[in-house]
């Protein structure tokens, strides 16, 4: 990802190291441009052509017969980054370009309908990023993180409502460069990224308003009545907006909100027990509730009224973008195939009558018996603090940040005049001014449903996905092995070396064999140190291990292993010489024991440090 306020395409391209441009035709680049760089999001321009030629410069001569595809889109902003070289100040959103390399066979798209035959209700272009965890090389649906992204409105930039396109470049032997062969607008695009280890964080800058109450009556997306008392056993009804009408003015006054405009969201849960409690409010508890199946809905309107319409609240029922069916989406290369070139201009399929449509999408937003907790968006200063504390990651991990822009009015004065270029490798992301959708694995699922989806349109919200490298578990396994192997090396050497001395001494003084076997026993204890640490590390091994945890486990294993190796060498050398000496001079025995004790504690030091390190490996990791 690169953010830059002013400059040229050459500035961006020259900032990347040569190692970054070693792609093969199997990988397809996805370019996300912010509005300030919209003139680069043009297949007829020079930026994409220059970038692709630099990207595939290592393989142009070897695969000149294979076309190169690319995806481009215009988004609203790039998210704040926390790696070295980040920008100073309170800026949390940037202009720039974000680039992702994905396997070409994992990208699917749908060609946009020609403008002249579009219906009045044109579906917005949607970009979907699907991050799937691999098990033995196969992606499993149960561990999927899908991010649906609304694109920027570019009607005043290039005359299009949204900008999402695909292009195909072919190798020109005369110029020895890639040249544009064909481009097409897309109405939908799905990019799948397979990874062995994915860790997610959901950040929602919300503040609770009122108490968690039971839903008494509702219909569709209309919430009409909730319990009058917070007691879960209470079914006495009251209008759904009654508490908000009292608590919101108080919240506005306490937070000194000048324009008195506050957006409200409803967290709907189907179970009486909840991961979220108002008394211990935190973003993590809200995220945990959503991870367990709760849905977050924007309160679009309501309040006031009289009679049967008194206190009704209208909730946003949308949880995903686009239609559920994917029969029109196809692999990217098929979109550009010759036999598909006329499909873009085919007549639109008429919509089915209402009685023939799938009514599963019309289920109620909140059903009687569910529980609702209302939230309000936080102030500007809290929003900045929340975004500035975004999770950081190790250099070998890939960080993906998606989210919703902060209030455009509140941050309109932050347009920066920076002229420096900031390049952040292994970092990808996008912000939408409207909303994103987030599908994630359902935590502790006991039913057939293995995933949960919600719409996220809270200003300043973030979905952070850390893609740890596939080799992360190797370091944990290496630490487990090091703990037992090195200590056994030390124990074996100490036992063998001291044992030779005991056998030699036993020829002259067989009555001292039992007394002088102490060095052998102390050497054997070194192996127990390694066994203890190795078992503790092995209990935390797994395919999904953060890189931080794996490195700490490696350090713990090396600490006890190498300390035990040193202690074993010392015990063996001292034990061999000591038992031989005591056979001739019994008064050397006490001195030998003292030396052995100080040699033994070297291994004990390593054990203590290893136990402390292993206890830190279970902490929440950010890399």
Automatic annotation (TrEMBL):
It is a multi-pass membrane protein. The chain crosses the membrane at residues 471-496, 517-538, 550-575, 587-612. Gene3D superfamilies: lithium bound rotor ring of v- atpase. One of its GO terms (cellular component) is vacuolar membrane. The keyword Ion transport applies. Its main location: membrane. The keyword Iron does not apply. CDD domains: ATP-synt_Vo_c_ATP6C_rpt1 (cd18175), ATP-synt_Vo_c_ATP6C_rpt2 (cd18176). InterPro entries: ATPase_proteolipid_c-like_dom (IPR002379), ATPase_proteolipid_csu (IPR000245), ATPase_proteolipid_su_C_euk (IPR011555), F/V-ATP_Csub_sf (IPR035921). It is found in: Vacuole membrane. Keywords: Hydrogen ion transport, Ion transport, Membrane, Transmembrane, Transmembrane helix, Transport. One of its GO terms (molecular function) is proton-transporting ATPase activity, rotational mechanism. Residues 478-537, 554-613 form the V-ATPase proteolipid subunit C-like domain. It holds the Pfam family ATP-synt_C. Belongs to the V-ATPase proteolipid subunit family. Proton-conducting pore forming subunit of the V0 complex of vacuolar(H+)-ATPase (V-ATPase), a multisubunit enzyme composed of a peripheral complex (V1) that hydrolyzes ATP and a membrane integral complex (V0) that translocates protons. V-ATPase is responsible for acidifying and maintaining the pH of intracellular compartments. PANTHER family: V-TYPE PROTON ATPASE PROTEOLIPID SUBUNIT. V-ATPase is a heteromultimeric enzyme composed of a peripheral catalytic V1 complex (components A to H) attached to an integral membrane V0 proton pore complex (components: a, c, c', c'', d, e, f and VOA1). The decameric c-ring forms the proton-conducting pore, and is composed of eight proteolipid subunits c, one subunit c' and one subunit c''. This is V-type proton ATPase subunit C.
């Amino acid at each position: 990802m690169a953010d830059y306020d002013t400059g040229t395409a050459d500035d961006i391209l020259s900032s990347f190291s040569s190692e970054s441009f070693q792609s093969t035709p199997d990988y397809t680049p996805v370019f996300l441009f912010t509005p300030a760089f919209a003139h680069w999001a043009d297949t007829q321009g020079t930026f994409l052509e220059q970038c692709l030629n630099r990207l595939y410069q290592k393989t142009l001569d070897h695969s000149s017969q294979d076309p190169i595809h690319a995806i481009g889109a215009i988004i609203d902003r790039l998210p704040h980054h926390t790696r070295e070289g980040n920008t100073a100040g309170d800026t949390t959103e940037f202009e720039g370009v974000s680039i992702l390399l994905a396997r070409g066979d994992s990208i699917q798209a749908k060609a946009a309908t020609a403008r002249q035959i579009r219906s009045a209700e044109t579906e917005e272009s949607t970009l979907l990023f699907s991050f799937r965890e691999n098990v033995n090389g196969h992606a499993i649906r149960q561990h999927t993180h899908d991010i649906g992204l609304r694109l920027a409105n570019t009607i005043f930039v290039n005359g299009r409502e949204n900008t999402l396109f695909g292009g195909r470049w072919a190798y020109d032997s005369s110029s020895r460069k890639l040249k544009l062969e064909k481009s097409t607008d897309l109405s939908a695009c799905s990019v799948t990224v397979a990874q062995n280890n994915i860790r997610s964080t959901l950040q929602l800058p919300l503040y609770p308003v009122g108490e968690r109450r039971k839903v008494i009556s509702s219909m569709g997306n209309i919430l009409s009545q909730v319990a009058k008392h917070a007691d879960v056993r209470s079914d006495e009804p009251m209008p759904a907006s009654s508490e908000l009408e009292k608590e919101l003015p108080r919240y506005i006054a306490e937070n000194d909100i000048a324009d008195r405009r506050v957006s409200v969201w409803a967290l709907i849960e189907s179970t009486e027990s909840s991961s979220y409690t108002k008394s211990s409010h935190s973003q993590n508890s809200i995220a945990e509730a959503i991870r367990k199946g709760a849905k977050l809905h924007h309160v679009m309107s309501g309040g006031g009224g009289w009679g049967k319409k008194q206190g009704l609240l209208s909730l946003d029922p949308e949880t995903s973008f686009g239609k559920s069916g994917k029969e029109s989406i196809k692999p990217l290369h098929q979109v550009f195939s010759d036999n598909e070139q006329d499909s873009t201009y085919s007549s639109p399929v008429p919509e089915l009558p209402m009685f023939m449509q799938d009514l599963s999408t019309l289920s109620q937003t909140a059903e009687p018996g569910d529980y609702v907790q209302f939230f309000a968006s936080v102030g500007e200063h809290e929003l900045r603090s929340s975004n500035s504390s975004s999770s950081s990651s190790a250099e070998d991990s890939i960080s993906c940040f998606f989210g919703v822009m902060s209030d455009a009015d509140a941050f309109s004065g932050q347009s920066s005049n920076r002229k420096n270029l900031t390049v952040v490798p292994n970092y990808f992301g996008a912000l939408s001014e409207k909303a994103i959708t987030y599908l994630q694995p359902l935590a502790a699922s006991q039913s057939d449903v293995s995933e949960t989806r919600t719409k996220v349109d809270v200003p300043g919200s973030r979905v952070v996905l850390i893609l740890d490298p596939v080799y992360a578990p190797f370091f944990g396994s290496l630490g487990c092995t090091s703990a037992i192997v090195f200590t056994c090396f030390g124990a074996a050497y100490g036992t063998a070396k001291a044992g030779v001395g005991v056998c030699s001494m036993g020829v002259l003084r067989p009555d001292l064999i039992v007394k002088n076997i102490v060095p052998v026993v102390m050497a054997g204890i070194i192996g127990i140190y390694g066994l203890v640490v190795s078992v503790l590390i092995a209990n935390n091994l797994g395919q999904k291990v953060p890189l931080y945890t794996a490195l700490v486990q490696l350090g713990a294993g090396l600490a006890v292993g190498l300390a035990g190796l040193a202690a074993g060498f010392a015990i063996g050398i001292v034990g061999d010489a000591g038992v031989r000496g005591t056979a001739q001079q019994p008064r050397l025995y006490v001195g030998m024991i003292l030396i052995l004790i100080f040699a033994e504690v070297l291994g004990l030091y390593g054990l203590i440090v290893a136990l402390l390190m292993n206890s830190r490996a279970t902490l929440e990791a950010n890399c």
